[in-house]
Amino acid sequence: MYNINLILNKKVNLTVKKIILSIIIFLNILYSAEVQELPWPKGVSFLTFLEKHSIPQKLYFDLEKEDKELCSEIVAGKRFFLYTEDNGDFNQVLIPVSEDIQIHIYKDSSDIIKFQTLPINYKEHTESIAIPITVSVSYDLQKATGNATLAVQLKSLFRGIVDFRKMQKGDFIALKYTKKSLYGRPHGLPELKAAMVEINGKEYYRIKNNKDDKYYDEKGKGFSKSFFFKIPLTYKRISSKFTKKRWHPVLKRYRAHLGTDFAAPRGRKIYAAGNGRIEFKGRRGGYGNTIIINHGNGYKTLYAHQNGFRKGLKRGQRVKKGHHIGYVGSTGLSSGPHLHLGLYKNGKAVDPLKVIRKPKTTGLTVKHRATFLANTKEIIKVFQYEMKSENRKQATKLDRLTYKSEVKKL
Ligand SMILES: [Zn+2]
Q: Fewer CB in 10 Å around end: N or C, the chain?
């Protein structure tokens, strides 16, 4: 049994406390509350958490299906904020379930405990950086940006085109990327908007087109991805669609469902949606029997509520698209047999159907081509200025723009 006091992190800095307290004031629930920032303990389910804080489990069982599934998105190690009253009683908790959604459980003015989902209002910064290689791409990029995942993304963008092991001192890279921060700390993974690699005097470009979220070279030539997803079962109907931060005008709250639900009879075979490796196989809170496949390139798929797994299937095993992995069921918290399919891109839940049904042709439409090329020209101008011999002596951070995350109300 875990004890939340034992893992109490006393290092929550003052700024964070101030921000959190201002949220509490904003929420109009002003108590002399103690704020703790804690990592979600391993092996602790949402229900165990409620029990620990003497919150009736009814709170969970009365939730709608989508909200129950959201609770299953809580992963061990994820940091959350807990507020307790002076006598140690529960006051409220904020648990992030994805980059932009958090669960908020709080005591209302009549001391009734309520559940709601709230958007996370992170800040987004766009930065450009030009880096002369001194040791290796991974080393120099991490040293200049403090981020280890940018190099992974960069390498994956130029896979098969650039051999990064052959990069030498004097070669050059330039990137434009966005990163998110919450309470002044990094939040989620950065996203590459443009990249240039100069190796042996030759330049290679990849620029993201905002309209279709795909990468093109400087001339607007697209790259077909080596994999595409397919719907992993034959289903009766889609019983619940992907929704994110949708404001519900009647319930007056946000709704989120981080996947697509396919209704199908119990025992119906489930297949891998794409080539990949079995990363997780087992029980996962309200998701019941769950499999997670890592497809590389930042994509993962999650298959929940399974009746059982295919015999002999092992964690770490490689599977091909269409490989039988399990059976439709109703395990975990589920109102009837269905497959909940989640799709994650760099840790962020995205709409599986949008990705699966995306047209498989590559290339810019005539309409978007001119905008893309004009935007690209500007980026290249900035990158090339930094590449001039008199400027390419050390890593340089360029423009910096800040945006707040957008919260859309319908
Ligand atoms: Zn679902």
A: N
Q: What is the CATH number of domain 14-119?
A: 3.10.450.350
| 228/266 Cα distance (integer angstroms) | 27
CA of 127 to the centre of ligand 1 (A): 36
pTM passes above 0.85:
no
pLDDT, tens digit (0-9, with 9 covering 90-100), for 286-345: 899 999 999 987 899 999 999 999 999 999 999 999 999 999 999 988 888 999 999 998
Contact 274, 293 (CB under 8 A): yes
76 C-alpha vs ligand 1 centroid, how far in Å?
20
Residue 7 CA, ligand 1 centroid: distance in Å: 32
CA distances to 59, 300, 345 from 258, rounded to whole Å, are: 20, 13, 12
Ligand 1 centroid distance, CA of 247 (Å): 18
Q: How far is the CA of 26 from the centre of ligand 1 (A)?
A: 32
Q: Answer yes or no: same fold for 123-224+363-404 and 237-356.
A: no
